[in-house]
Specification:
By secondary structure, the chain is of the alpha+beta class. It has three domains: 4-191, Orthogonal Bundle (Hypothetical protein af1432); 197-331, 2-Layer Sandwich (Beta Polymerase, domain 2), CATH 3.30.460.10; 386-430, Roll (Ubiquitin-like (UB roll)), CATH 3.10.20. The protein has 19 helices and ten strands. It has helices spanning 4-21, 27-39, 41-54, 61-74, 80-86, 89-100, 112-128, 130-146, 152-172, 176-190, 192-203, 206-226, 240-250, 270-283, 325-333, 349-364, 372-382, 405-412, 414-419; strands spanning 232-235, 262-267, 285-286, 292-293, 306-311, 317-324, 386-390, 396-400, 423-425, 428-430. Strands 1, 2, 3, 4, 5 and 6 form a six-stranded mixed beta sheet that branches. A two-stranded antiparallel ribbon has the order 7-8. Strands 9-10 form a two-stranded antiparallel ribbon.
């Protein structure tokens, strides 16, 4: 059952919302929620978890209300005409769009055909109203959190669906706040042994690692403060799935990773980002090959930040991310930073840029009876498909993922390509065509 305090809070909020926005009594809606909690306690808990997932995104009142009442509508705890008497037309429309997903009543999508259809409906909803997809992502996160009590097949299917659709979609929409939770929970169910191993490795010497990062931050605050830059500096938590992916992608052992010790710096302007980068590289030795300029070359999901790694005291590497406060907000919230919805109003340019490619994806899949290529095209789209390589002169080269050292040599200069005889990647000698 949902905790008493949470129920009381929801009841107070709902009463206030209904009476302020429609002048109607909230009692019928509260009765519907009460029946849901009594008849379907697990569904009621699911709703509460979804609302918790949405909270950091600062959803508008209609989004909260639609999330709260969706299962009441699906389970017919209240009939459509009863809902219509107490809700605004726009809230009813949002509930209708959620229902059209044909998604929330299912335990999971059983195969790729069903997943492709589920993805198609999600993308259609995204183009119409981004709030529908944000609710769907929050709902999926809630399902993952409660999946531990389900049978193995169901748990694995929910996790696989999340890994194929929901986590990549959250990433493409730039919602870091949901992305890492979806990734970590799905990974926990799909690769339990690897998940436990990395958690144990993170737990080892955690106090020592935190003390080291705190000492580094103290020194960095002094360095930045000396030049008059106002910066917010904090340690950055590493997530299990991102650690595992980096280990797999780079062929590194856990103890070889540069970003297990990580620091984030937030400043007011882009110019200050580069000033801080210069200070960091002046006071600490940069680690070769570990610089990425995502401000000049944003990721496909519009993520912006400077990433570097430096060698600190005792020869230990520390990752440093540098960004503006606004960049950080967009990295955490993505489309939710633009989602203030107005019926018939103009779209936010940032939101349009993020969802425009999804619209093209849908158009490319038109006419397919089974959506066979949609899932594959979506996976290709949401894969990080660019790499950024630093030249000896400090220039950043943007290359397609899979490019070889020889490609890089020719990109630097034709003569460099002609004369190139060997290469190192991440400190290791590799073939020129790797």
């Amino acid at each position: 059952m949902v905790e008493d305090d949470a129920l009381v809070t929801l009841r107070h909020w709902l009463t206030d919302y209904i009476e302020r926005h429609s002048g109607a009594e909230a009692a019928p809606l509260l009765e519907g929620l009460g029946r849901l909690a009594q008849d379907r306690p697990q569904r009621s808990i699911l709703v509460h978890q979804a609302l918790q997932a949405l909270e950091p995104l600062s959803p508008d009142a209609e989004t909260v209300l639609a999330t709260l009442l969706l299962p009441v509508m699906l389970d017919r705890q209240l009939e459509p005409q009863e809902l219509a008497e107490h809700l605004s037309a726009s809230t009813l429309k949002l509930l209708g769009q959620l229902k059209q997903l044909q998604y929330f009543g299912r335990t999971y999508l059983p195969d790729d055909s069903a997943r492709a259809e589920g993805l198609r409906r999600l993308l259609l909803a995204l183009v119409e109203d981004v709030r529908v997809v944000l609710i769907a992502l929050a709902w999926q996160l809630a399902r993952l959190k409660l999946a531990a009590d389900l049978d193995e097949q169901t748990r694995q299917s929910i996790a696989r669906e999340t890994q194929l659709i929901h986590a990549p979609l959250a990433n493409r929409l730039g919602i870091g706040q949901l992305k890492w939770q979806l990734e970590d929970l799905a990974f926990q169910y799909l690769e339990p042994q690897a998940y436990r191993q990395i958690r144990l490795l993170l737990a080892e010497r955690q106090a020592d690692r935190e003390a080291y990062v705190n000492a580094f931050m103290t020194q960095l605050k002094h360095v930045v403060g000396e030049v008059g830059i106002k910066a917010e500096i904090s340690g950055r938590a590493k997530h299990v799935y991102s650690i595992w992916r980096k280990m797999q992608r780079k062929g590194l052992d856990f103890h070889e990773l540069f970003d297990v010790r990580a620091v984030r710096v937030m400043v007011d302007s882009v110019a200050e980002c580069y000033s801080v980068l210069g200070l960091v590289h002046t006071h600490w030795q940069p680690v070769p090959g570990e610089f990425d300029d995502y401000i000049t070359n944003p990721k496909p999901n519009l993520y912006q930040s400077l990433h570097t790694a430096v060698t600190g005291a005792k020869g230990r590497a520390v990752e440093v991310q540098i960004r503006t406060h606004d960049m950080h907000r967009h990295a955490e919230l993505g489309v939710a930073a633009h989602w203030r919805y107005k019926e018939g109003g103009p779209r936010d340019a940032g939101l349009e840029k993020r969802i425009g490619v999804m619209r093209q994806l849908l158009e490319g899949a038109e006419g397919e009876s089974d959506g066979s290529s949609l899932l594959e095209d979506f996976q290709n789209l949401t894969t990080e498909d660019r790499v950024y390589v630093l030249t000896p002169r400090g220039e950043v080269k943007d290359m397609v993922a899979g490019a070889t050292p020889l490609d890089f040599a020719y990109l630097v200069h034709t003569e460099v390509g002609h004369r190139c005889r060997g290469a190192r990647v991440n400190g290791r000698i590799v073939p020129l065509t790797t």
